[in-house]
Amino acid sequence: MQRPQISLPRTDGYEAEDAKQMLRQLVRTARAHRSERARLLAGARFAEHGLEAVSHARCVAAYVSQGNEPRSYELLEALHQRGVRVLLPVLGPGLARTWGVYTSAADLQVRAPGRPPEPGGEVLPAETISEADAVVAPALAIDAAGTRLGQGGGWYDRVLKHARPGTPVFGMVYGEELIRDVFLPVAEHDVPVDAVITPDHWFLLEGSVFQAQSLGEQAEALTPFADERTEP
């Protein structure tokens, strides 16, 4: 069952990082109410739609979910079984931006507290993402402009500069984390996503119903303020 959309406040007047931290806490609190069974069921549906979204790809850069993040294990295994090369983050010292290749869930190991499990085997440089035909990135929320609210480390935003130009970036979120009524705060290094994967479907942002509805709702919300400014 679709949950009600998460309501996020406007953050005008806040520094971008302060605003992001406030919004992250709101989304994390909402995610904490999702049961383990619901997360497992959603994982299978994320995999179904994720496979459709990247059906063209021979190499995909993705992520290993942890905690309440949209579950990625089923998608990783399905891609691997299809013969797709799957690149996963290997954080290393100081959150180094390196990669490893997925071989199985059993190969994924937690290397340090608080970090997601990582594949064993050869550690590949940041530039290896240039081999990817698509990127599947985690997100806490996504708005109509493609702004992705991440966990706060900036890992994906910084490593994406090594991706091939035009490589599509897919953000994976629950449906209620598609933010229609406000724009998320943006920092200089932020890289927008091109498309969204949810447990119900996947879609390109450009020209989507979500984008059109969001822009319409925000225009309506701003109209009273515009009228007030034009009054004598």
Automatic annotation (TrEMBL):
Molecular-function GO term, any one: ATP binding
PANTHER family per UniProt: 5-FORMYLTETRAHYDROFOLATE CYCLO-LIGASE (PTHR23407:SF1), ATPASE INHIBITOR/5-FORMYLTETRAHYDROFOLATE CYCLO-LIGASE (PTHR23407)
Cofactor dependence: Mg(2+)
Originating species: Georgenia yuyongxinii
Protein family: Belongs to the 5-formyltetrahydrofolate cyclo-ligase family.
Keyword field: ATP-binding, Ligase, Magnesium, Metal-binding, Nucleotide-binding
Record GO biological process: folic acid-containing compound biosynthetic process; tetrahydrofolate interconversion
Record's catalysed reaction(s): (6S)-5-formyl-5,6,7,8-tetrahydrofolate + ATP = (6R)-5,10-methenyltetrahydrofolate + ADP + phosphate
Protein name as it appears in the record: 5-formyltetrahydrofolate cyclo-ligase
Coiled coil: none
Lineage of source species: Bacteria, Bacillati, Actinomycetota, Actinomycetes, Micrococcales
Domain of life per record: Bacteria
TM stretches of this protein: none
NCBIfam families assigned to the protein according to its UniProt record, in alphabetical order: MTHFS_bact
